[in-house]
Amino acid sequence: MATEIKNLSRQLDAVNAGVSASEVHGFVTGWISSGTAWDSAAEVFEQALETTLQGALAETVKQTADDVKAGLADMDFGFQILLPEDENAINNRRVALSEWCRGFLSGFGLTGRYQDSELSDEVKELLTDFAQISQVDDDIPEDEENDSDLTEITEYVRIGAVMIFTDCAFKAVH
C-alpha cells in the first residue's frame, strides 16, 4: 500500500489537486460500492474533487478502481483502505481516514443510485458512522491506546465498506 499511496499522491501533486490519495481512494470505493460502473465516473469525479483526470493520473485512478473492485469482491476480505502506513504519526493517519470517509460518502452519494429508503438499516448506520468519522478533526495524542483505537476504527471502516459493497453493488434499484 505504501507504493500505491506514494504514486497516487505524487500524481495528484503534479496536477495541483486539492485532494489526498486517501480521499480519491475513498471516492472510488464509494462509487464502486454503489454498484455503478467506474467508466461513468470521470466527469463526476472531476467536478466533485476538482481534479482533471488525464494522462498518468487517469490511468492510475482507473487501475485503482479495478483494484478496489477486485478487493471488495474478494471473499477473503482482501480489500484494503489506502492510508498512510502505521509508522506515520497518528494524526496523519487520522486525517487520512477522515478524508477517506469523506471521499467514500461523496462517491457513493454522487452516483444517485439510491434513495435513503432503499438502503438497509445496516448500510444507513455505516454511512452515518462514516460521516461522523469524516468530521473528526481533533488532534490525538501519540500513545499505544490511541493507536490501537485508530487501528480498530480503521478496521471497522474497511469491513464496513465491504459490507456496503456486498449489500448495494448488485441490488436492482429504481
Q: What composes the largest sheet?
A: none
Averaged pLDDT, please?
90
The top level CATH class name: Mainly Alpha
Distance between the termini: 36 Å
Order of helices and strands: HHHHHHH
The percentage of residues in β strands lies in under 5%
- Tell me the helix content: 55-70%
Give the CATH topology: Four Helix Bundle (Hemerythrin (Met), subunit A)
Shape: globular
Radius of gyration over C-alpha positions, nearest whole angstrom: 15 Å
Can you characterise this structure?
This protein has 174 residues and is mainly α. It has a single domain (2-168), classed as Four Helix Bundle (Hemerythrin (Met), subunit A) (Up-down Bundle). Helices cover 65% and strands 0% of the residues. It is built from seven helices and no strands. The protein is globular. The termini are far apart.
